[in-house]
Amino acid sequence: MMKRVFCGLCGLLLSSFPFQSYALDDEPLSVDSLIRLKEVVISATKTEVSKHQIPLTISVINRATLNETTETGVLSVLSEEVPGVFVTERSVTGYGISNGSAGSVSIHGVGGGNKILMLFDGQPMWAGIFGHNVPDVYVASDAERVEVVRGPGSLLYGSNAMGGVVNVITRKAKEDGVHGRARVMYGSYNTQKYSANAGYKKNKLNLYASVNHDRSDGHRDNSDFYITNGYIRAGYDFSENWNANASAIIADFKVTNPGTIETPAIENWSEAFRTTYSLSLNNQYESMSGALQMFYNQGSHKIDDGWQNNAPRDYWFRSRDFNRGIALFESFRLFEGNQVTLGVDFKQWGGYAWNISKPGKTVDESRSVDKTVNEVAGYVVAQQNLFDRLTINAGVRLENNEGYGNEWVPQAGISYQALEGTTFKFSASKGFRSPNLRELYMFKAANPDLEPERMWNYDLSYLQSLLNDQLNFELTGYIAKGDNMIATIQGENGPQNMNTGKFTNKGIDFAANYHLSPLLKLRANYSFIDTDTRISGLAPKHKVFVGMDWKIKKVQIAPNFQYVNGLYMETVNEKDQMESYALLNCKVSYKPNAWLTLFVNGENLTDTSYQTYNGYPMPGIVVLGGVDFQF
After folding, report:
1. Cβ(470)–Cβ(514) under 8 Å?
2. Which of 111, 243, 371, 571 shows its CA 20 to 30 Å from the CA of 359?
3. CA distances (Å), 226 to each of 194, 229, 268, in order?
4. Do residues 363 and 386 touch, judged by C-beta distance below 8 A?
5. Cβ neighbour number for residue 199 with a 10 Å cutoff
6. Predicted confidence band of residue 19 (pLDDT cuts 50, 70, 90)
7. Is the predicted pLDDT of residue 381 greater than 60, yes or no?
């Protein structure tokens, strides 16, 4: 099968070269910013800083890449485009919540639960009770770009950023007047995707709004899914130095869990309604910049855990959670080459959960948890550029949690530009994760005396730009060591959550993109990890991705190939069951004019059998066709 896939991909590439190529309307393809050394990022400092001056390893997915995907969610794009990142999937579309849910993100083998922090414009978005991300809420059409910190981000963002940070930078209108886009897709398994967005800009006012609706019958019985997402953002420039932004996100979805192949589930479904509101006041001066940010995230969930061989349950599980906070930070440029950032955070998260009787049934409806957790933190980060080549960066955070007390988080690193286009970076950083309410107070294994999980990460990177910036690549090696990990231990009195686990992960990441011409670009990444832990679906030993974007007059062809090897699933009779697979995908689009695009997208074109979430086989060939309107 591997030989067949490889030959097919090579055929697509080679067959394209005999034709003469022209860009539609003489517009070149947008430059992919995944590895560009001169691009500006904000997730590692909270202010705009050149990427090659930041010691941390950061990947960026730009608007052009997000525009081309037929995926609604951000996470599916990350798994392909960013080395060292892996996301579990279970169906044609949608991840779900509760039992049987996918969308677990790992970075360098660290993930699952709430070890990777999801941000929207630098503000946390996760469920307050169970602490996990809600992957179906993170919509690609709302993102201007996505920045991924591949390593601890706890210095700036505190708990849950132990393994890394995914920061979705949302869109805003860039040109005066009204501009928008609408897309309709239909395909395999009655999968339907509808989206529309529009932006308006005039003088000091900037507005942007979007709506998305996905639904699918799924490729297995009892695997249907639907979701409606809405997003609105308003910005206003008071002056050259001050502006304000406000945004709101609404997500309403229902997902059915079919269970594993071995133990199918009956009437196992989850409904959720989630909202997020945020407000920021920002300043930008020549010698200082910063922001005051406020956010409020809440959700209401209703879940039927279903049944298999036994009788249906007499109750539904209900929960209401929240996650809110205030962040204030300011960066000062005290003298040439210097930047000092001071910040304080206050976060409050929690909620309550209970069982509610089904019609005609009677159960105890008292709350199983009703708790609020307060956290407050302060941090300082200093950065100094020397000789226009060397950048030194160091900082420390002190976070206080009312449950376990203080947690110190140091971080340091250097970046050295040896030559024009050649940069070396090294960093040492600590990450941590606070125990969530489930681990502390819910179910039989609860332990209110748990302490944070902790991890140290060390990485060394080499970044290179060649051929007038047409070819860019990055090579990173890392070692991550974690301890105090929370695990459920079986004791004399039953199971209990304990701080007992350790892990050591070592590996390398490689990523490159090559712009052969304004009409043809290639991109590739590879990651290798050696870990002493075995967690199902967490991270493959090898992951390869190769993609191409090529324009032939009014036609654009974008095939890509992904290979995954050594993904641990389970242990059966003392033998580890590993998953390896290769996927060939291709999107072909036709743009007859500036406002209309017709496209068809095929996934898993070789009909490979594989799974990323144990017991949940992925679909075979999936084809979606669609129409894209721009105005």
Report:
1. yes
2. 371
3. 11, 10, 15
4. no
5. 20
6. very low
7. yes
CB 307 within 8 A of CB 265: yes
Cα–Cα distance for residue pair 20/23, rounded to 1 Å? 10
Using CA atoms in the order 141, 256, 534, 116, what is the torsion angle rounded to 10 degrees? 30
Going across the sheet that includes 164-170, the strands are 58-61, 143-149, 164-170, 116-120, 123-124
Domain containing residue 356: CATH number:
2.40.170.20
What letter represents residue 519's amino acid?
A: L
- List the structure tokens of 84: 């060292």
- Determine the Cα–Cα distance for residues 119 and 459; give it in Å rounded to an integer: 23
Instruction: Classify residue 498 as exposed, middle or buried by CB count within 10 Å of its CB (0-12, 13-18, 19+).
Output: middle
User: Is the distance from CB of 163 to CB of 152 less than 8 angstroms?
Assistant: yes
* Residue found by looking up tokens 């779900």 in the block: 96
Residue 17: count of CB within 10 angstroms of its CB: 9
- Classified as helix, coil or strand, 11 is helix
CA separation for the pair 495, 488 (Å, rounded): 6
Contact yes or no for 10/17 (Cβ under 8 A): no
pLDDT band at 173 (very low <50, low <70, confident <90, very high): confident
- Give the integer Cα–Cα distance in Å for 606 and 6: 11
Q: Count structural domains, the chain.
A: 1
- Interatomic CA distance for residues 335 and 317, integer angstroms: 57
CA-CA distance, 177 to 179, in Å (whole number)? 7
Asked if pLDDT for residue 48 goes beyond 60, the answer is yes
Map 230-259 to HEC letters: EEEEEEEECCCCEEEEEEEEEEEEEEECCE
Distance of alpha carbon 628 from its chain centroid, rounded?
25
Report the amino acid identity of residue 499.
N
- Give the residue among 129, 104, 108 at the shortest CA–CA distance from 118: 104
- In angstroms, the CA 437 to CA 373 distance is 9
Query: Could you tell me if 623 and 187 are in contact, meaning their C-beta atoms sit under 8 angstroms apart?
Result: yes
pLDDT tens-digit series, residues 525-556: 999 999 998 888 899 999 999 999 999 999 99
Helix or strand (DSSP H, E) at 193: strand 191-202
Angle at 393 between CA 325 and CA 527, to 5 degrees: 85
- For residue 457, give both structure tokens: 């990460």
Q: Supply the range of the domain harboring residue 405.
A: 2-630
The H-or-E segment that residue 63 falls in is helix 63-68
In 358-452, which ranges are E strands?
367-386, 390-401, 405-419, 422-433
Query: Which pLDDT tens digit goes with each residue over 456-474?
Result: 999 999 999 999 999 999 9
Q: pLDDT per residue over 66-124, tens digit each?
A: 888 888 888 889 989 999 999 999 999 999 888 889 999 999 999 977 899 999 998 89
Strand partners, 177: 201
Q: Coil, helix or strand for 439?
A: helix
